[in-house]
Amino acid sequence: MSVRTYRPRLAPKTVRAFQTRLLDWFKHHGRDLPWRSTRDPYKILVSEIMLQQTQVDRVLDYYGRFLREYPSIQDLAAAGRSAVRESWDGLGYYARARHLHATARRVVKRHAGEFPRTLDQLMDLPGIGRYTAGAVASFAFGESAPILDTNVRRVLTRVFVRRRPSRQAALDRRLWMLAELLIPCGKAWEFNQALMDFGALMCTARNPRCSDCRLGELCAWNQAQRAKSNSTPRRRRA
Ligand code: SF4
Fold first, then answer.
1. Residue 113 near residue 107, CB atoms below 8 Å
2. Topology of domain 12-228, CATH
3. Which amino acid residue places its CA nearest to atom 8 of ligand 1?
4. Which of these, 100, 116, 131, 181, has the minimum number of CB atoms within 10 Å of its CB?
5. How far apart are CA 84 and CA 94, in angstroms?
6. What proportion of the chain, given as a percentage, has pLDDT over 90?
7. What pLDDT is recorded for position 229?
8. Which residue lies with its CA nearest to atom 2 of ligand 1?
9. pLDDT of 52-64, one tens digit each?
10. Would you say 67 and 46 are in contact if contact means Cβ atoms under 8 Å apart?
């Protein structure tokens, strides 16, 4: 039985247009969030773990406070379990706090307090999956590592996927490859942040702002919507 592997085939012109327009949009509309002003992998990891399952507005209330209590990975590693649980109180999904604490202890013990840089080593830490590893690698170390959260997934699917594969795993593989292929050389930080913000602010789940969108010409979903509305017979006015 042959296994067909999907390779995204995108014209270099399309890739360049997507990168340029997205980065330009981000320059003017990207959000100013506290975890964007640091390259410290520990502080970036804290934000990423908090942002799993929790809205940005809510995380803003906790992020600064948590880092004042545990300013470094060594401080968090040295804290007791119940103290960390208490600091997390109100954010919910406490397994996240447990994993973060366990990661801090592992990094201090096995890596002398220095975060590993490779995706494989990052994914070996407790509670760190492919998305979070990509976020730490690209946001802290500028590595060309893809990320795929809900927002990024939605943007890439709408713009590039004309025919959805029937199996979710096949779609996921395709999206991860796209997310990697599209990163402009040396700009992983900006590009990944831009994709997340674009999904959160423009290409939203319910009301995408297609009429103001500078990716409209490249976007398969937008073109399909237009074709549909052009082919719908208009009712005559009485
Ligand atoms: S045209 Fe609409 S669907 Fe396509 S990327 Fe822009 S906002 Fe999203």
1. yes
2. Endonuclease III; domain 1 (1.10.340)
3. 203
4. 181
5. 10
6. 88
7. 86
8. 210
9. 989 999 999 999 9
10. yes
- Shortest CA distance to 154 belongs to which of 103, 110, 220, 205? 205
Spacing, Cα 5 to ligand 1 middle (Å): 27
Question: Tens digit of pLDDT for each residue in 123-144?
Answer: 999 999 999 999 999 999 999 9
Dist CA 173 CA 6 (whole Å):
8
Among the atoms of ligand 1, which is closest to the Cα of residue 214?
6
The DSSP annotation for 173-223 comes to HHHHHHHHHTPPTT-HHHHHHHHHHHHHHTS-SS---GGG-TTGGG-HHHH
Under-50 pLDDT residues of the chain: 1-3, 238
Ligand 1 surroundings by CB, under 6 angstroms:
155, 158-159, 202-203, 208-210, 213, 215-216, 219, 221-222
Other Cβ atoms within 10 Å of 208 Cβ, number: 20
Q: Which atom of ligand 1 is nearest to the CA of 216?
A: 1
The predicted pLDDT at position 9 comes to 79
Nearest atom of ligand 1 to the alpha carbon of 220: 4
Length of the chain equals 238
